[in-house]
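Subject: two folds for Thursday's group meeting

Dear M.,

Sorry for the delay on this. The cluster queue was jammed most of the week, so I only got both jobs back this morning. I'm pasting them in the order they finished. Each block is the input sequence followed by the predicted structure tokens. Could you check whether the formatting survives your parser before we put anything on slides? The first protein is the one we discussed after the seminar.
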Amino acid sequence: MPQGTLVVLGGGYDDPTLALLAGLLPARTAPIEILTTATAHEPARTHAAYARALHKLDCPHVGHLQVDEDHPADAPATLARLRAAALVFLTGGDQERLTEQLLGTEFLRILHERCQAEPGFILAGTSAGASALGGQMLVAGRGWRSLLAGGIEVIPGLGILPHLLIDQHFVERARYPRLLHAILAHPQLLGLGLSEETGIIFRPDQAPEVFGDEVVMVVDGSALTASTYAGRPIGKPVGGQGFSVSLLVAGDTLVLGEASRG
């Protein structure tokens, strides 16, 4: 398990999560960085909104880690700020932008290293920023068509939580079918469907705990007894038997199972 603290939120209203994060800081004056890579339009406005919310929580030092097509991840000043941050917060938007800009970079290596080795370091993400932290991430799939072969797209994530596949806005956008399909395709991963205003906090040496107002759906395909996924013609329904499905609410803990997960 990582020695840092990781927090994933399913999107929606995130002020309560910001309050939770502020409470986890070693001091309210600790440096915070907002990573807006997933936010394609007006990232400065997004950063400013988070900075205002955190200032109200007595957190005065809220920087903007702007990593995009014009601001390379491995710029020396950017890496220095990443190393100094007590909390890095990944905003929502398009999770593919995060992997396009960060995979294979020194920035991501440092982020992995800090999460794994530094007690007290905090990494958090909402919506796309949460989904990107898994080993794989869903980037396409809507409605009933997501239960047809070819109806979803799953690509590598940032791998901070390598044994998880995280979906967001889960209940609100009716994403049950696509998460089931994704775990049918990747049964070695544990699927997490995060509703809005709901998330999970991963602390070192503790069971991950659900927080928020709605539910987290957990899909475990490790004991599948049958699957029609392999070789299914495009457009034909996929099927599987033996899923384990749980619904968790605030205060419930996530059982990660074997040591290969977590």
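Second protein, same layout:
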Amino acid sequence: MNQTPATTEQTGQVDCLMIPLNDRQLLLPNVTVAEIIPFSQLMTTNSSVDWVLGKIQWRGVSIPVVCYEMLNGTAAPRPSPNARFAVINGVGKHPKMPFYAVLVQGIPRLKKVLENAIQPVDAVMGMGKLDQIAVSVDGESAYIPDVDAIENLLLQVV
């Protein structure tokens, strides 16, 4: 008897994370995020920019922590008991910085996104310099960040 395995993945579907920030959500493919970890003590850095909050130890590696809001030109979020770090896989494969972390304001949610479910929205007033595009996914608004630009800016200052 010929059996075919059950297919749960649909063509054009991407597993993503809705990552809560202070005033918005980021939408990132799940493979971009290495891990979500609890907020921990930050080590200081010699960074000349305020959006690098410090460094954390993660799996034996010292990685920089970014405040996306400040990097994106808005005010820093108020301290939150729900704060965590999203450890992001470096996209440029730079040996100096294979990972960095982003301060997030809660627990990210898994979102299965169909290609045709993402709709660009007009958010000109709310767009930051590192927001690649504003989107609506199943009625939820989110921003897709320019992870290449974030990584390049980090490489210049750390």
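Two things I noticed about the second structure. DSSP finds two helices and eleven strands in the chain. The domain at 14-157 is CATH 2.40.50.180 (OB fold (Dihydrolipoamide Acetyltransferase, E2P)).

Cheers,
T.
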